[in-house]
Design brief:
With about 375 residues, the protein is an all-alpha fold. It has a domain at about 1-265. About 70% of the residues lie in helices and about 5% in strands. Helix 2 (about 55-70) packs antiparallel against helix 7 (about 190-210), helix 4 crosses helix 5 (about 145-160) and helix 7 (about 190-210) runs antiparallel to helix 8 (about 220-240). The protein is globular.
Length: about 375
């Protein structure tokens, strides 16, 4: 019990230090962003803000995280490789926030950054077989371990970046995902993983007051890719290694929202003959805005979804599959009821009217409500 109390104390301290440093560093980073011209100008309809807002807020998150890690975490060889990869990701993000870099160059550098931990022991060696009818309980990756690990890290890094489209969305979802992993790590007595995740949660929360709608600062690619990178690597350290029996499900539950949005975007773009890296305005958060929700309602909806997935993952790792499924079903019902309470009646009525118009007038009329709605928003 003494060890558990000490672990909780370290976790709380790591979280608080990261929170305070991140919060205090944000105004400093904001001044720096103005000096180097890292400003997000609303030049297309994908952007929800109306005035120029400084980026680079991710630098404050990174500084808060690093100060806490250096004070409280044990810097093992694996941890060094994760931090080195994170530094590369942050440097890439800072340069990209100041001057937009080509997508392919960023992709190559991300692969290089992911290779550093993947070649130094941070690997997905095996995971549970999703085929429940198979006699083999596990898929041992063997020689595919490194490429599979790199794919996972790069995918999650970009997935978090892709959902960074509304004030506070990527930061909040990352904080929820990191908190879920932290709870699982604490239950499993994973000291170092717990401290790292606590530092990440604290750094996210410290930046939150500046990032919530209406945002005073964006975290930019610097923050979104950094958060994705740390979440990906720590999911390997804390989930794939310690929860092999359910390791196929747990990380996908915790990071379900960014994974689904990225997969959906990839399929959608390929189906339309576009590059998978082509930016568009059809992400989940854009669709919620187009349905009539305001930014705060859309972000709150996605927070609830992320929290439901996270709680289900916690129950799955601590109580088994049946309880997790019951928990997931119950939370979905609660979420649906909450949605009816939170969202104004006018929004629901507008949706009903639009659906009736679509039925009456066919596919040709489908674009007109969207255009009218954009005019109203503009």
């Amino acid at each position: 019990m003494l060890i558990e109390n000490r672990l909780v104390a370290y976790v709380v301290l790591a979280l608080l230090v990261a929170l305070v440093v991140s919060f205090l560093m944000t105004p400093v980073v904001k001044t720096f962003a103005y000096k180097v011209g890292a400003i997000d100008v609303p030049k297309d309809n994908r952007r929800m803000h109306k005035v120029p807002i400084p980026r680079l807020g991710g630098l404050a998150i990174f500084i808060g995280f690093m100060v806490s890690i250096l004070l409280f975490a044990e810097i093992s060889a694996e941890m060094k490789s994760i931090l080195l990869g994170a530094v590369i990701i942050v440097v890439l993000g800072v340069v990209d926030d100041i001057m937009a870099l080509p997508a392919m160059l960023k992709f190559v550098v991300q692969i290089a950054a992911a290779l550093i931990p993947a070649l130094n022991g941070v690997q997905i060696l095996a995971f549970s077989n999703p085929n429940i009818f198979s006699e083999s309980l596990y898929w041992v990756l063997g020689g595919l371990s490194v490429p599979f690990t790199v794919l996972w890290i790069v995918a999650i890094t970009n997935a978090v970046n892709l959902i960074d489209g509304l004030d506070g969305l990527a930061n909040g979802v990352s904080a929820i995902s990191a908190t879920t992993m932290l709870v699982i790590a604490l239950v499993g007595g994973q000291t170092q993983v717990s401290i790292v995740l606590a530092a990440l949660v604290g750094a996210c929360v410290g930046f939150m007051p500046y990032n919530m709608n209406p945002a005073k600062m964006f975290m930019g690619d610097t923050g979104a890719t950094f958060l994705g990178f740390i979440l990906a690597t720590m999911s390997i350290q804390g989930l794939f290694k310690y929860y092999a029996v359910v390791s196929f499900v747990v990380p996908f539950l915790i990071l379900g929202l960014p994974i689904f949005d990225t997969a959906f975007a990839f399929i959608r773009r390929v189906a339309h003959g576009q590059s998978p890296m082509h930016a568009d305005r059809s992400h989940i958060h854009h669709r919620l805005i187009d349905m009539g929700l305001n930014q705060k309602q859309a972000v709150a909806t996605l927070y609830v979804i992320s929290a439901i997935l996270g709680l289900s993952a916690v129950v799955l790792t601590t109580s088994g599959e049946q309880k997790a499924m019951l928990m997931f079903a119950a939370l979905c019902i609660v979420g649906a009821v909450a949605a009816r309470v939170v969202f104004p009646r006018e929004v629901r009525e507008e949706l009903k009217e639009e659906l009736e118009e679509l039925k009456d007038h066919g596919h040709h009329e489908e674009e007109k409500p969207a255009e009218g709605q954009k005019d109203e928003e503009g």
